Amino acid sequence: MARPMGPVRLKRTNPVTLVLGAALCIFILYFVIGSSAPDFSPSRKATAASHHLSPPTSPFRKPASGSKPKPPPVAHYNLNNVTITPNPLENRENILILTPMARFYQEYWDNLLKLSYPHELITLGFILPKTKEGNLATTQLQKQIAKTQKTGPEKDRFKSIIILRQDFDPPLASQDESERHKMQNQKVRRAAMAKARNSLLFSTLGPSTSWVLWLDADVVETPPTLIQDLAKHDKPVIAPNCFQRFYNPETKAMDERPYDYNNWQDSPTAQEMAQHMDPDDILLEGYAEMATYRALMAKMAKPDGLLHEEVPLDGVGGAALLVKADVHRDGAMFPPFAFYHLIETEGFAKMAKRLGWQPVGLPNYKVYHYNE
């Protein structure tokens, strides 16, 4: 016969266990609710953008609950007050230097630091590809930026620096000079370059920018007064002549030779060739297979010529190019497609001319390209 059970006694819970359980519950609730709610703490609000058009581009944050909300900021810019004059230094005009970069050259950066235009008026903009080589160039660039902006002399520090990474793959696996300049690679290569230039331009051109200086990453030597020298011509688009220094084995001494053949004056032969091309075909300069007989500024340099002699141009290169910001604001960009059978910088020159802006070149004013 079964014996009746006595009353059941529950084991008394340890108070420490209850405290730990309650603390755990509170932590879980805080984590779930706190992670989804906006953070309006003073430290967090300090990183929010004080102005919606100024970096860093953090979101504009509403004030904490309970306080009276303020409207988001409204910026007013009168572009009529932005001067673009032959005396940018005297008028304290803002310069935007833009550089598409696949490789980093220390000589390029050293030359930038030598520019005599006040660095507090210069904004630098870079765009680099998302490749192994582009990653290396970005690392090297950021190292020099940190050195200049954080520990370098005050006079060397720039107003601001913007780095973009391309959101498309480069068409060429190699950036070697021999590979870049093969004729069969030119259309896809220059279309990609045009896209990179446009991305860089549209992301960095600000309402206070007066001049845009396009300077290739492999241009390693320019006069320190490059910006002032080009601006004083007061031309909407102006290009110096790009040469390259090299050791001449015939003379056994250092010499120089023309490099950029994209600064040119059009010819009847080139115009005739264009009339018989398909709409998507482009004319290229500097190739024997496509003799255009254009007048090349690279061949116009004279040892005894006037330094600031001007010649009108129908096509321009991008090695070094000073552009009034109003030309870009009017819509002149770098076509990544055949535009009157021209592409990239040469297409830009054509577009500028169609908008009423005449490009000009300086045959005897030289900048120098890196010699690989």
Automatic annotation (TrEMBL):
The keyword Membrane applies. It is a single-pass type II membrane protein. Pfam families: Anp1. The keyword Transmembrane helix applies. Transmembrane segments: none annotated. Keywords: Golgi apparatus, Membrane, Signal-anchor, Transmembrane, Transmembrane helix. It is found in: Golgi apparatus membrane. InterPro entries: Mannan_Polymerase_Subunit, Nucleotide-diphossugar_trans. Residues 44-76 are annotated as: Disordered. GO terms for cellular component: mannan polymerase complex. GO terms for biological process: cell wall mannoprotein biosynthetic process; protein N-linked glycosylation. One of its GO terms (molecular function) is alpha-1,6-mannosyltransferase activity. Gene3D superfamilies: Spore Coat Polysaccharide Biosynthesis Protein SpsA, Chain A. Belongs to the ANP1/MMN9/VAN1 family. This is Glycosyltransferase family 62 protein. It comes from Canariomyces notabilis.
